[in-house]
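pls design
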């Protein structure tokens, strides 16, 4: 405050003649500092510089407490570089290079001013095909213009992109593609003042992946059986259980539970108490989310008399492949064989029998050849067998070696 007690004059001296001149006196008025938001006094619109030369980008602001400065280049925080230095007047760039070209923004703030922008959520991890929603909260200013950027490029609303809110503060994007990942930034501007924040959006192939599962086993009647599937995916997959392609009954003996482990992966358990022979068969855990579906299956055998589950008649489409399943319960059994019109299958290249699980596959189904009754025969003891039959109907035109030629 004592600086305001004196008069001040400016004195000049001629370099060659030595003549001196003195200005009129003036008094310096010193007042207590008042807290105030920053106000930019000096800025710039455009600068051109020769390569390897020095360039200074002016940015000077008043305010109390003294403002702090931060520089952005192409809407991203300026990367540390020994050639860049914050001076009293602005940003000093030594030995400018072609890579330094771009749009520079000077941000200034103190405890009493400028707007602050915060994007939420702070971390976004999504999957391809999912929806991502971002929100930009701005404090310190009621009047501002807000823009959204992805990897430095301005985002425009479209069929899968919506910008909502009174100040365009909400960004909603649907059907995200892998290329949509990156740095998302909101910019709030008011006059020469600006604030920004950004968040990294990471998009993964969220298709479910089974990390661990169960294997084929043999149990005795009344034993306790516990099956588990551990699966990852984004969003978290839903898990369903089937037995021989039918949903597992949920009753006092069959319990299904789900939880998320510490790594964010889905864990599903199927527990069976007092296991009975009909509980045997092929168990499958089916895991799905918006990104896709994956499944795993294995056979669980329960000791007891072997038999075949009832089979339903089937309809096939001409020209397509089809599967016929023979569901065997009980254990042990010796073999599973398929017959058509008393002929053991396969008897041509379009038929394949899987004896390990009782499945018959028919390739390129033909009405005049493949339609009819199929019999699954299970050898349950060396001299004893059981069987079930199923009728296959074929829809579509009968194949003909001359059909293509007749249309020419």
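designed seq:
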């Amino acid at each position: 405050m004592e600086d305001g007690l004196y008069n001040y004059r400016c004195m000049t001296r001629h370099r060659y003649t030595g003549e001196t001149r003195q200005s009129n006196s003036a008094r310096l008025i010193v007042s207590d500092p008042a807290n105030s938001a920053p106000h930019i006094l000096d800025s710039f619109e455009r600068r051109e510089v020769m390569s390897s030369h020095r360039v200074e980008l002016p940015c000077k602001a008043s305010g109390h407490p003294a403002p702090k400065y931060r520089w952005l280049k192409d809407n991203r925080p300026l990367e540390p570089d020994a050639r860049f230095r914050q001076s009293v007047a602005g940003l000093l760039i030594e030995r400018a290079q072609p890579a330094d070209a771009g749009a520079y923004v000077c941000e200034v703030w103190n405890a009493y001013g400028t707007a602050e922008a915060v994007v939420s959520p702070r971390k976004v991890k999504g999957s391809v095909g999912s929806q991502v929603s971002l929100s930009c909260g701005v404090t310190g200013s009621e009047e501002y213009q807000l823009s959204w950027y992805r990897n430095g490029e301005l985002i425009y609303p479209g069929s899968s992109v919506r910008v909502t809110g009174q100040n365009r503060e909400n960004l909603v994007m649907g059907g995200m593609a892998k290329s949509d990942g990156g740095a998302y930034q909101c910019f709030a501007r008011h006059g020469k003042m600006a604030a920004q924040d950004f968040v990294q959006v990471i998009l993964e192939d969220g298709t479910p992946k089974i990390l661990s599962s169960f294997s084929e086993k043999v149990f005795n009647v009344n034993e306790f059986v516990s099956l588990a599937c551990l699966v990852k995916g984004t969003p978290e997959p839903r898990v369903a259980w089937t037995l021989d392609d039918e949903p597992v009954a949920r009753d006092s003996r069959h319990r299904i539970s789900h939880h998320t482990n510490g790594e964010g992966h889905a864990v599903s358990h199927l527990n069976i108490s007092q296991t009975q022979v009909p509980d045997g068969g092929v168990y499958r855990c089916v895991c799905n989310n918006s990104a896709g579906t994956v499944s795993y299956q294995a056979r669980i055998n329960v000791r007891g008399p072997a038999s075949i589950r009832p089979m339903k008649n089937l309809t096939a489409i001409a020209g397509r492949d089809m599967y016929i399943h023979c569901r065997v319960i009980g254990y042990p059994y010796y073999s599973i064989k398929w017959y058509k019109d008393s002929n053991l299958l396969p008897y041509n290249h379009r038929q394949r029998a899987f004896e390990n699980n009782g499945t018959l596959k028919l390739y390129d189904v033909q009405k005049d050849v493949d339609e009819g009754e199929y019999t699954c025969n299970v050898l349950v003891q060396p001299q004893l067998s059981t069987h079930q039959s199923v009728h296959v109907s074929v829809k579509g035109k009968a194949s003909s070696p001359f059909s293509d030629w007749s249309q020419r």
